[in-house]
Amino acid sequence: MVVGIEKAVSAANSVVSSAKKTPTAIPSDCVINLARGDPTMYQPYWRRMGDKCTVVISGHDLMSYFSDPGNLCWFLMPELDDAIRRLHRVVGNAVVDDDRYVVVGTGSTQLFQAVLYALSSQDNPDTEPLSVVAAAPFYSSYPEETEFLRSGLYKWAGDAYAFDKDGAYVECVTSPNNPDGTIREAVVNREGGKLIHDLAYYWPQYTAITGKADNDIMLFTFSKATGHAGSRIGWAIVKDKEVAIKMVKYMELSSIGVSKESQLRAAKILEVIAEDCVNSGPEKEENFFEYGHRLMSERWEKLREVVKRNGVFSLPKYPRDFCNFKGKDTDPSPAFAWLKTKDGLNCDNLLREFKIVTRGGTNFGVDSDYTRISMLSVDEEFNLFLERLAAIKGTMNGNY
Amino acid sequence: MVVGIEKAVSAANSVVSSAKKTPTAIPSDCVINLARGDPTMYQPYWRRMGDKCTVVISGHDLMSYFSDPGNLCWFLMPELDDAIRRLHRVVGNAVVDDDRYVVVGTGSTQLFQAVLYALSSQDNPDTEPLSVVAAAPFYSSYPEETEFLRSGLYKWAGDAYAFDKDGAYVECVTSPNNPDGTIREAVVNREGGKLIHDLAYYWPQYTAITGKADNDIMLFTFSKATGHAGSRIGWAIVKDKEVAIKMVKYMELSSIGVSKESQLRAAKILEVIAEDCVNSGPEKEENFFEYGHRLMSERWEKLREVVKRNGVFSLPKYPRDFCNFKGKDTDPSPAFAWLKTKDGLNCDNLLREFKIVTRGGTNFGVDSDYTRISMLSVDEEFNLFLERLAAIKGTMNGNY
Fold first, then answer.
1. Residues of A with CB below 8 A from B51's CB?
2. Molecular function terms in GO for this entry (chains A, B) (predicted)?
């Protein structure tokens, strides 16, 4: 199955004509980049909200480094702390009792590194670097974020399934998992292990909320919860005070805190979402998570249909589960499609020939017949992606 | 000269009565923290500007990770890039020709670390860590920011004056210097050296602008330029494309870019300042830098008067210089007072007994008879600081 670039362009061009039927802002022969999970699909919802989430910031506002000098996390704005805890209570996806510490970060990316620092600088001042593992397929940035500064505190130790070293380690548990959407638990489960729970996708638009997560260190991010990636706001919910203190120390040393403008806006938006969820009733407009879940379900249905029809790829199947938030059984609709070629071809390369840029399986510690595709792009891009994916079958048939 | 805590409290209480004459929001017996350079003194200026610098951000704005996908620094908002270059042109403090790269960061703190990564991961993939030095007294955070992750790429190598290792190194040149306000140049000047110019304080309110800085890597920060520390915005102006690319890579790995809300607001505020500077005339209100310089000059005059009168401390003297921006000779008025006890006592400890918290000389690589005091606090705090400083003499006299 060799697909020449001419055929790919021709296939792409054939999409042009049908795409032109409905006017689109995206040139239909352009490259579609679905490699990064840029969550732009939620924008129409926020546009519809009008001024409800608008923040107005004067020139003299938010000037000091400090937000709450008496708080352990002195740069966390109290209104954001409140909004985070309230939303988790309303959604029921995490325990946020008063004895838990909230640490805000410049996205959960910075917090992940803050946790590595906190866990590794705590107990082993002079020993060898702490091993960091995650079960494959794992989030593609974990290895690079762990390795790029060649820290003597921690080092990437690869697939948790293959980890057999004794002693202290850190396991990253991403659930639902990025890239493959599965619900996960720790796999190493040995003495001396510490866990980071990356719960970026544990929200009702992506999965059933089956209970309040109650882990030692839980990471969430504004990007995936509401689609506001440009704000770079993440938060950690932490049980242990010493870990929280060390994380705050990391934030001080790496950036002296976190943008207050972003914190203020995140607080406002999270407040509005929580309020809308509480007020939802038969006569009310759908709340953010209902909207998100409806869109994601529709996209997954369309994608599964295209994949089924063209016969070239497969997708994971997910069990239905009862969602406490929605109050009914729901199908998961992950933020990424974990696409696999049935015949073992390099899935990322194949899609690139059709001008669809994705992130190949090897980035996630598995084979290249897998690739990860963002499901969170704008409608026009997602529809063009489906058209191109559907076109692969037509083009392939001769060689297949 | 041993000052008991009772005496200190008594001295502090004696300040209360005089402080009470003019009502103040700060309890006059409270601890004044001048250890961090929180630039809250500029707030009245920004309040006076009314809505001129107000930004309004709707719920659907600024959602994507990307700001300018075609730019090397893809997360930098074009309006911030423009505003930064325009302000430097108006002030005349840095070369910002089109062939220079602007990289935005979460404060210049994050950018400092991005530069270390860029310079160390570039040329020496497997050799020993790159030495990082700065001439004492140096910014107290450089050692910790360089060391805290025990990177294999770079390591803190102390005072540049004492550095005698062969081979590659990085020298941080802070000018005007933090903590002591002096104008600086590189001191090592050897083959294989690379320079980071930290120009956080090279603005007209602190020093004479004597020419456009034209160094390879220059760091600036919104905090010290305008007083907006809570926004966490810094920028680097970089000559070498490969260095800029590596810095952007660091920003991707450490936080996937920089808050767009903060960038938008910084763009607005820098634009307004530049516009006001250009429009200044005899009938116009004073521009931001004129305001800042007037306040700083007044504070320095008062401080020098108190120091002269009580005889316990000394302050550095700075040469007058012609400021191209102001068009006249001016006295420097640094953001920090670098206070020294005349008799060699621990200056930080002495001030703490009078409930003034500062950052002692040993943090900056010199003796404890020096301490650094922020000159950028709000008026009430600064005045209370002066009163307590003046009171030290009276209390001391018995033991002195």
1. 58
2. carbon-sulfur lyase activity; transaminase activity
Establish if A275 touches chain B: CB-CB under 8 angstroms: no
Do B18 and B95 sit in the same domain of this protein? Answer: no
CB of B202 within 8 Å of a chain A CB? The answer is: no
Q: Do A36 and A117 fall into the same domain? A: no
Q: What is the pLDDT of residue B280?
A: 65
Edge-to-edge strand list for the sheet holding A169-174: A101-106, A233-238, A217-221, A193-198, A169-174, A130-134, A154-159
Res. B168: pLDDT tops 90: yes
- Token pair recorded at residue A43: 């924008």
pLDDT interval class at B27 (50, 70, 90): confident
User: Where is average pLDDT lowest: A370-379, B20-29, B34-43?
Assistant: B20-29
Per-window interface: A 229-248 vs B, CB < 8 A = 229-233
CB A106 within 8 A of CB A235: no
Task: Give the residue on A whose Cα is nearest the Cα of B113.
Answer: A254
- Residue in A60, A151, A257 closest to B232 by CB: A257
Q: Which two tokens stand for residue A144?
A: 């690079």
Range of the domain at A215: 62-278
The 8 Å CB, 24+ separation contacts for B287-291 are: B288/B42, B288/B45, B288/B205, B288/B226, B289/B91, B289/B203, B289/B204, B289/B205, B289/B325, B289/B326, B290/B204, B290/B326, B291/B42, B291/B45, B291/B205
Please judge whether A51 and B67 are an interchain contact, meaning their C-beta atoms are less than 8 angstroms apart. Answer: no
- Decide if A259 and B262 are in contact by the 8 Å CB cutoff: yes
* Interface touch A255/B232, C-beta < 8 Å: yes
For A64-79, the pLDDT digits (tens) are 999 999 999 999 999 9
Greater model confidence, B168 or B20: B168
**HEC sequence for B265-292:** HHHHHHHHHHHHHHHCCCCCCCCHHHHH
User: Is the Cβ pair B67, A230 closer than 8 Å?
Assistant: yes
Q: Does A25 touch chain B (CB under 8 A)?
A: no
Q: Which domain CATH number covers B338?
A: 3.90.1150.10
Confidence class for position B17, pLDDT limits 50, 70, 90 = very low
Of B228, B249, B278, which marks where a domain is finished?
Answer: B278
Enumerate the residues of chain B whose CB falls inside 8 A of the CB of residue A222: none
Query: At B357, is the secondary structure helix, strand, or coil?
Result: strand
Q: What is the pLDDT of residues B335-378, one digit of tens each?
A: 999 999 999 999 999 999 999 999 999 999 999 999 999 999 99
**Under a CB-based contact definition with an 8 Å cutoff, are residues A18 and A394 in contact?**
no
Are A126 and A183 in a shared domain? yes
- Chain A: nearest CA to B336, how far in angstroms? 17
**Number of domains making up chain A:** 2
Residue B59 in contact with partner chain A when CB distance is under 8 A:
yes
CA distance A360 to chain B (A): 19
B379 touches chain A (CB under 8 A): no
Contacts of A148 in chain B (CB under 8 A): 117, 121, 250, 253
